Amino acid sequence: MRQLLILFFIIATTLSARGEDNIAVVPGEQYVLRNVATGSYLQKDGTTTTDESEASNWRVVTNDTIHYSDKEQLYFVYSDDIVMQLTNGGTGWKVSFSGKSNTTYVMPSTTTENAFKFRYRYLADTRFINVEVDGNGNEKLTAAKTQSAYNDWEFVPTSHPKDYRYRLMTMDRSSGNTKYTIAYLSHDIAGEPVWLSGWIAVPTSSEGGPSNADHVLFSTHYTMCKNSEVPSQSDPYDAYAFNLSTNKPVMIEPDYLGYGISKDREHPYCAPDIMAEESVDMILVCHDMLRDMHNMDCSTGEYPTYGIGYSQGGAIILACQRYVENSPKLTEEERQAIKWTRTCTGAGPYNSLATISQYLFQDKLSMPVAAPLLVMGMVAAYPDIFGDIPAERYFSDAFNGAGIVDKVRSTDYDIDELNDAIKKACGNTMQSMLSEEAKDFNSDLMQLLLKALGCSDLTRDWTPKAEIWFFHNTDDDVVPYLNTMSAYKSLKDRCLGGCSMHTTGVGMSHLAAAIDFMARMILGNYK
User: Fold this and answer.
1) Are 355 and 312 in contact (CB under 8 A)?
2) Which residues pair with 74 in a beta bridge?
3) From CA 441, how far away is CA 385, in angstroms rounded?
4) How far apart are CA 199 and CA 241, in angstroms?
């Protein structure tokens, strides 16, 4: 499991000196590598320099599919596509720097405090990346058999970091292509910089390098409440769309604010503007990464973007199209680079006000956690509307007494566990979940909520340019079918690229219909 907090712990303990000397090397951060014996710094072409300001910057990336003994295998990746490696394929030892995969890993030094060695084993032969100095003082890299200060390296925070908007957290080249988890720079609800995370898959050879992708498949995931389920923490549910697709996509999937490395933040559930901005930021950052790592220049629009999403992801993917086509925060060059071509959206709450109104009308909910998620999402996303009013004011004493809001915020519980907790505390009806004040639509408290929910309506105030395909199941037990019909009728005559409605999974539940939707996407029907 690629859980970033656990990953940080593994690296902090694996990349450490003996005993109490515990020095963390953080994935994605930039360092220069200094040889202990010579004091020189390692360059990306395998040479050394005595000037730190000229030294190459290196970033550590885990390869979580390859392990040796109980040690985590690691790549050290230069700022672009250069990987340091020590190899022996039966033809002799070689220290090289390229984009190819390797199994070189880092171990704490046994000869120098607070230093590390790069080690590789071929059969029974173990070697270390070593600096050798000849009689004239010239240095070169060799594969040493014995351990000494000449193969001890120190990680020194660089004095000249490159201005990256992304950090590679993990890299997996085991399946004939390359998959990453990354941290990327975006903005939070207040407009302040924040690091978010997500998952990327790129069709490449098993050695990495240039990609043969011809488009981007941007996928926004359905409602997930447990942090260990989100894309950067485990294989995304729709990764099959990448593994089985014959369309050769680069697949990109964000975790969302409040999950992954931002799990300590409030999640703005179903708030389209902030969710779209942060999600589209990942596309643009991935353009940087694809250029650096795989020689893909997305700036010309050569790699069009197709969007897919189901349930919460369905609303977010439609919001992303609206953001790409209309937001003044994007430049025309960025719109051209993204080249949004089609949106395939399934069973999304495109109008959250209509959704919660339907919940109040039907009262009994098959997924009761949807109600607190909507309320909490609005309170988190619109502080200018709610001020210091806590989400708990909208819920009954029985609901609050069970600590449901805290359970949701913890991201330690999945949807089924939260549904069970709500049913046990107060049942699965809106009447049992809501406070008396929240049951009165005319109360000041509810007027604030209704105002916020109105801000999340994706069915008005824009003219879509790219094609939209709506999918929904007439018997959906979570997101009302009328929600999609309303969105379709509102947008179909205005959508310049064309708008179509597809009924799927008749007689199925919301979850079962998701399988039907994703099967279509896996077969490449989005394109």
Assistant:
1) no
2) 62
3) 16
4) 14
pLDDT at 325: 98
Cα–Cα distance, 427 to 424 (Å, whole number): 6
Are 270 and 377 in contact by the 8 Å Cβ rule? The answer is yes
The CA distance from 311 to 325, in Å, is 22
Please tell me which of 6-15, 376-385, 477-486, 513-522 the model is most confident about, judged by mean pLDDT: 376-385
Model pLDDT, residue 245:
67
Specify the pLDDT at position 444.
96
Report helix, strand and coil shares of the chain as percent, to nearest 5: 30, 25, 40
Ranges of each domain in the chain: 4-157, 166-351+457-522, 352-455
What do you get for the CA distance between the two ends of the chain, in Å? 31
pLDDT digit string (tens) for 315-348?
A: 999 999 999 999 999 999 999 999 999 999 999 9
Give the model confidence (pLDDT) of 343-387 as tens digits. 999 999 998 888 888 888 888 999 999 999 999 999 999 999 999
Q: Is 397 exposed, middle or buried (0-12, 13-18, 19+ CB in 10 A)?
A: exposed
Q: Which CATH architecture has domain 166-351+457-522?
A: 3-Layer(aba) Sandwich (3.40)
CB 234 within 8 A of CB 253: no
Residue pair 99/204 in contact by the 8 Å Cβ criterion:
no
May I ask the CATH class of domain 4-157? mainly beta
Residues linked to residue 153 through DSSP beta bridges, in sequence order:
35, 116
Q: Do domains 4-157 and 166-351+457-522 have the same CATH topology?
A: no
List of residues 6+ apart from 91 with CB closer than 8 A: none
H or E segment to which residue 128 belongs: strand 125-133
**Tokens 């953001």 sit at which residue?**
323
| Alpha helices for 122-261 (secondary structure H) | 240-243
Give me the amino acid identity at 197: S
The two three-digit tokens of residue 510, written as one number: 């919301």
Is residue 323 within 8 A of residue 277, CB to CB? The reply is yes
Write out the H or E segment, with its range, that includes residue 58.
strand 58-68
